[in-house]
Amino acid sequence: MRLTRRAALKGLAALTGAAPFLKVPARAGTLTGVQLLLGGTLASTPGQFAELASGPLSHALELETPLELTPDIGQDGVRAANLFDANSAPDGNTALALPGATLLASLTGDSRVHYDFGRWIPVLVASTTTVVIARAELHKTLRSRLTGFFHDHPVRLAVSHIGGPELNALMGLSLLGLRPIPVAGYVDSSNALTALHEGTVDAVQISPYTLDRPLDDVLANLPEGTSAIYYTGDLTDTHATTIPIFLEAYQQARHRPPEGPFYHAWQAVSAAADTAMALALPMLTPPGIAAQWSHACAAIGADSGIRHWADLHHFKLATGENAAPFLSRTVPDLGATLALRRWLAVNIPRWREGQETRHL
Question: InterPro entries recorded for this chain (predicted)?
């Protein structure tokens, strides 16, 4: 049928008249009312990052209004993570900035945990270094044990609390064949190092961002008879380059590479302890929205203020697709998880009584 000019004009008029009633779809990837949940107060590591990144991140995400920061009263991020996992729609309008303590709480089976961080989508990770320092005779002990001259003795390890980041050292020393006793109450590294100087404890775990002076200075002025026995993470300080990684320390002690579920559990715990902060999106966030966040995080990773903050605390930033491997390292398989939970179930009652760690 032939379309006349009059019919065409009538059709155009009809479409024009209907236009006000047609819903025009929003631009793909539009984010509105974006909020950043913080696993800690504004003074925490996630809080410090959020305050610095709020402006650059809002700009990189092309938000019409600045993103809203929602701090938490707790410091380990468990409450914020529970809210994030239970209530956040996967629309990209809510992200969570969490400390490594949030990951450790889940790994250790904390009864408060109702989230599964293994399902989240990481878009930025700030990682750090952990160094374990102990009395030098521990080196002799490790060597002599293999030749039959070892007289096993407990090692007092300064910890903030049972289940804290020093779980890295507790498990590491246990793998090396020692019997650590956690001595709680050492919230900051300065107090722990003072106790090491005074002989109150035999071992400490420190990270550069928890120190009140450069790591090189700490390592160059350790109390007599002590030394750094291993480190985890990415270590760049000059004095620290002589410290062995854990694998080297283990092979020196055991003359074989480490293996087994408990070692794999330690790898996950160590990776969690070396996570200073992570920024994540909910599971099922659409790929396009996740990519938008990834690009934005890559942009703020180059921001001068963020770079200065990271350099000041010796953090290594990984953004976008580079962030995923960091978080995946903190997710152990079922066998490793069960080995960790069994080890904790046996030893937590012993630690509360001041007894040394029991090997399984």
Answer: TAT_signal
